[in-house]
Write a structure and sequence with these properties.
This protein is an alpha+beta fold and 363 residues long. Helix content is 21%, strand content 32%.
Length: 363
């Protein structure tokens, strides 16, 4: 049993089907918005000044180290108890650079997983990017690219300029203003011996108002759909997972129309995409809280090729939101909210992580 636990990545578990016990391999795929995972070094090319020892957040080495330990704990536990192993694939948002990811994967509970990193610097002026972490033993990347989201805001008032927090705006010729936001990260590779594609997202924020910025997220949804379509033209049965902080919930136009996500398996046809987090939203669950209202901005959506009852290859089993008491504030004005960073201490994140299980019958 010790040998079994030490050298297998997957948990073999049994479920009862037609009175016969079957065994399955299981992989956890997760996404987590790390909420401002900055180092303490001032980068002259980005607006990271507040995340320095002399900045507004008083971001010290001690706080940074605590933040890494907090994230280590979460990432090592996502997916339990169904799968005792840490996630095989982890999409991440709000990371400043590759260095912070290198520091993170050196934390003891993560170092033993031998995690690889795929990361590109994005044009976001705050310097926050998306990335993919993966267990090298079980996932082998074959290609990866960062796909820019090119969007413009034609008219912007002085007041609106001061409200833009997450997406920096630069004036362009012909009175056009480009919104510099995160690229969409596309990674292709093999999960064990099966090809799979992952898109990691952090769509434009709602800074300046939901209605005023919805067009940007709708454009992000359309770009996501375009990427998926291109993969399906090469292989109609391409298995694609698109994950991220979409800054919209399952019922917003960017998800329902731009990406075209369906919330019921019975609605999903050959080239559609399925969003299991729509069902969780209908149950009143959430990953982020605002004004005492919960929403699911963090989602993992998949192509129909992953939503099958045949488990001779890896397919979707179920989805979840990872929530533990230590991730929730237990006092103060924000009691019940995710435990985020404060001026006095490093928290976890203002988002809760999400995950899906992919399973395959073991023969």
């Amino acid at each position: 049993m010790h040998f079994f636990r030490a050298f297998l990545i997957v948990l073999f578990f049994s479920i009862q089907t037609q009175s016969q016990s079957k065994k399955y391999k299981i992989h956890t795929v997760a996404f987590y918005n790390f909420e401002n995972l900055y180092d303490t070094v001032d980068d002259i090319f980005t607006n990271d000044d507040e995340w320095t020892p002399n900045g507004a957040q008083h971001w010290t080495t001690e706080k940074y180290q605590q933040k890494l330990k907090n994230l280590e704990r979460v990432l090592s536990e996502i997916g339990t108890p169904e799968n005792s192993n840490a996630p095989t694939l982890i999409g991440a948002a709000e990371v400043e650079n590759r260095n912070v990811l290198e520091d993170l994967i050196k934390e003891p509970k993560l170092q033993s997983l031998d995690l690889g990193i795929i990361h590109f610097d994005s044009p976001d002026k705050r310097g926050i990017d998306v990335a993919l972490l993966y267990q090298k033993k079980y996932f082998r990347p074959t290609s990866y690219s960062n796909i820019p989201l090119i969007i413009y805001k034609k008219e912007i008032s002085q007041k609106e300029e001061t409200e833009v927090l997450d997406d920096e705006i630069e004036v362009k010729k012909e009175n056009k203003n480009r919104v510099f936001t995160r690229d969409q990260l596309l990674v292709s590779g093999f999960l064990e011996n099966e090809e799979i594609h992952i898109i990691v997202n952090h769509w434009p924020s709602r800074s300046g108002g939901e209605k005023a910025t919805t067009m940007f997220r709708e454009a992000a949804g359309k770009l996501n759909r375009k990427i998926i379509d291109s993969l399906q033209r090469i292989n109609p049965q391409a298995k694609v997972l698109t994950m991220g902080d979409f800054n919209d919930g399952p019922f917003n136009k960017s998800i329902k129309a731009g990406l075209g996500a369906k919330g019921l398996k019975t609605e999903v046809s050959e080239f559609d995409v399925f969003n299991p987090f729509e069902e969780l939203a209908n149950k009143g669950l959430g990953t982020i809280a605002y004004r005492d209202s919960w929403n699911i901005f963090d989602q993992i959506i998949m192509t129909a090729s992953l939503v099958k009852s045949d488990f001779s290859s890896f397919n979707f089993w179920k989805a979840g939101i990872f929530s533990r008491p230590y991730l929730i504030q237990n006092s103060g004005a924000y009691k019940g909210y995710p435990l985020r960073n404060t001026l006095s201490e490093a928290g976890f994140s203002d988002h809760l992580p999400v995950y899906v299980y992919l399973i395959k019958e073991f023969k």
